[in-house]
């Protein structure tokens, strides 16, 4: 998994690489800049007018090196180095000198007043004012510069991170003094701030540029946060033995549905089956019997004595895992049913949707949840389980605390669904698309989690894989059709291709 390091971790790793590779700091900047330029040249032709804004640290050094490389490649570049305190980092000084040696060169160093140039709409701004070394909110002349950049219509490309944005927490930052980039090309690993929805307007679309920082250093420097990518899947998805039989992949139980919400039960059951489980029993209220048997013929049906809601726990088998929640409704007997379930069944289970709402109204139930169970709240459900917050940084912290306190896995769903582990670690999912913001897609994720636990994956692996494959199935569908037309059933229909893609 790709680690997501803090700003101070990154500078530590930078030093580690310089010392142990070994490589000179100036050459490391050169390497970063040339990686950026290679990508840039594939996208923009030499007629594009480029404005480079550089600061006094190594983000500025990157910017000046990029300016020089683009000039040497025949691009039209105008560069500005902002140096109000007359102090440049060693690397920035060196790359300034190198840039000044370029023959055709429009370079200005600003030490006091800055008269902004007129920037044409179809030009490009390369933002290298501040990188991960930002150590306080931006004010004064730099704030004015950032407001100027945000006021023009040119395409803005940020080097490493938009200037003014902190790598981790921006809860106390001033949004008016952060560059709004269209694209961010970030070195080696994404920054934590990229995963918070409030920052999308600053970061734009982002891409990781590997610059060969020390692999040993990465292993030695500890972080709680990781990004899950394609390469991680091949390591964790296991192949089926030739002699497998349906018992190999478990017999699991899903308790879901109520009158008017049988769709949630059926979607989750279908998703569980498509994810490979051996046998499934679906527990539904009696009004749902015909529906379940017709829509999901592969599942056995256990019928509650209540017509409208699920009220009973019937552990007639030693189920491999149990999933509870989708479409249960919020009803008086719900809390008692969950309490009985948590008392009778002590293996990790999957808890979603209305089961989370019932727990939120009966918080004593939290400590009764079997250890290592997986809870899958969206931000609204998390808020009910914890306290009100609309800030996504705070929400992650709340999900982490919940996971740690109750020894459970909490998947906070969203664009980069975050799996918060009892250990304190958090993994962000990289697949999926806005088409998945549609009713029922959460029920599908729930079913996939039941499926993977049933197949014998441990909860941590099941959580990482389910999110990844769920998002990938949505991406495969969108590649053929469109985000608008994506339905929860389309995700189910593409689980098969998603598994196949992992193995290719
Ligand atoms: N570790 C890596 O991955 C690499 C990092 N490089 C670049 O180096 C950058 C980090 O460089 P630095 O650590 O020099 O930091 P920055 O270039 O982000 O800037 C730090 C400078 O800005 C000043 N500063 C910070 N906040 C300010 C504020 N609000 N107002 C005014 N001045 C402020 C600091 O005092 C310092 O002088 C990265 O973002 C990246 O672009 C690359 O060159 C090479 C490899
Ligand atoms: N913009 C998005 N990008 C990627 N995945 C998304 C996006 N929006 C929603 N999803 C995914 O779709 C699912 C939605 O779940 P949920 O909100 O519980 O839906 P529902 O309750 O309708 O089933 C989650 O797995 C979430 O990660
Ligand atoms: K920047």
Tell me what the structure shows.
This protein is α/β, with parallel strands linked by helices and 504 residues long. It has helices at 7-20, 25-43, 58-72, 90-100, 140-151, 200-203, 215-220, 230-236, 262-274, 289-295, 333-344, 353-361, 379-385, 392-406, 441-454, 459-480, 488-493, 495-503, and strands spanning 2-4, 49-54, 76-82, 106-110, 124-128, 155-159, 183-187, 205-209, 225-228, 251-255, 279-284, 300-303, 322-324, 350-351, 374-375, 409-412, 418-420, 426-429. The protein folds into two domains: 2-223, YjeF N-terminal domain (Rossmann fold); 245-503, UDP-N-acetylmuramoyl-L-alanine:D-glutamate ligase, CATH 3.40.1190. It is built from 18 helices and 18 strands. The strands form two sheets. The chain has an eleven-stranded mixed beta sheet. Strands 4-3-2-5-6-7-8 form a seven-stranded parallel beta sheet. β2, α3 (58-72) and β3 (76-82) form a beta-alpha-beta unit. α2 (25-43) crosses α3 (58-72), α3 runs parallel beside α4 (90-100) and α16 (459-480) crosses α18 (495-503). The longest helix has 22 residues, at 459-480. It binds ligand NAX, adenosine-5'-diphosphate and potassium ion (K). K(+) binds at residues 59, 127, 163.
């Amino acid at each position: 998994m790709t680690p997501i390091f803090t700003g101070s971790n990154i500078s530590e790793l930078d030093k580690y690489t310089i010392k142990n590779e070994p490589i000179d700091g100036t050459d490391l900047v050169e390497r970063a800049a040339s990686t950026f330029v290679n990508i840039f040249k594939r996208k923009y032709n030499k007629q594009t007018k480029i404005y480079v804004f550089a600061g006094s640290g190594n983000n500025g050094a990157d910017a000046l090196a990029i300016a020089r490389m683009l000039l040497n490649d025949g691009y039209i570049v105008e560069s500005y180095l902002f140096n109000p305190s007359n102090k440049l980092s060693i690397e920035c000084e060196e790359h300034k000198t190198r840039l000044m040696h370029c023959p055709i060169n429009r370079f200005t160093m600003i030490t006091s007043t800055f008269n902004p140039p007129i920037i044409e709409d179809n030009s490009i701004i390369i933002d290298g004012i501040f990188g991960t070394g930002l150590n306080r909110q931006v004010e004064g002349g730099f704030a004015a510069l950032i407001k100027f950049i945000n006021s023009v219509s040119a395409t803005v490309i940020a080097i490493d991170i938009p200037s003014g944005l902190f790598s981790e927490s921006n809860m106390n930052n001033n949004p008016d003094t952060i560059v709004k980039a269209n694209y961010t090309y970030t070195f080696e690993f994404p920054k934590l701030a990229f995963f918070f929805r409030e920052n999308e307007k600053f970061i734009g679309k982002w891409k990781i540029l590997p610059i060969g920082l020390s692999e040993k250093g990465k292993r030695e420097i500890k972080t709680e946060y990781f990004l899950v990518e394609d390469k991680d899947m091949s390591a964790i998805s296991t192949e089926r033995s030739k002699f497998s039989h349906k018992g190999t992949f478990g017999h699991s139980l899903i308790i879901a549905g109520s009158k008017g919400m049988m769709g949630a039960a059926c979607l989750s059951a279908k998703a569980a089956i498509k994810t490979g489980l051996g046998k499934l029993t679906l527990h539904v209220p009696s009004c749902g019997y015909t529906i379940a048997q017709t829509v999901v013929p592969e599942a056995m049906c256990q019928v509650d004595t209540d017509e409208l809601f699920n009220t009973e726990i019937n552990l007639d088998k030693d189920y491999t895992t149990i999933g509870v929640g989708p479409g249960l409704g919020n009803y008086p007997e719900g809390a008692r049913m969950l309490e009985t379930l948590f008392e009778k069944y002590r293996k990790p289970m999957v808890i979603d949707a209305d089961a989370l709402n019932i727990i939120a109204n009966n918080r004593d139930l939290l400590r009764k949840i079997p250890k290592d169970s997986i809870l899958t709240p969206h931000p609204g459900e998390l808020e009910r389980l914890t306290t009100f917050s609309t800030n996504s940084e705070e929400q992650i912290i709340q999900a982490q605390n919940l996971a740690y306190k109750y020894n459970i896995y909490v998947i906070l769903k969203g664009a980069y669904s975050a799996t918060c582990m009892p250990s304190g670690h958090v993994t962000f999912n990289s697949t999926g698309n806005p088409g998945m913001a549609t009713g029922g897609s959460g029920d599908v994720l729930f079913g996939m989690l039941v499926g993977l636990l049933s197949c014998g994956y441990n909860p941590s692996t099941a959580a990482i894989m389910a999110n990844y494959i769920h998002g990938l199935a949505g991406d495969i569908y969108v590649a053929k059709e469109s985000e608008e037309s994506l339905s929860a059933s389309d995700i189910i229909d593409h689980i098969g291709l998603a598994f196949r893609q992992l193995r290719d």
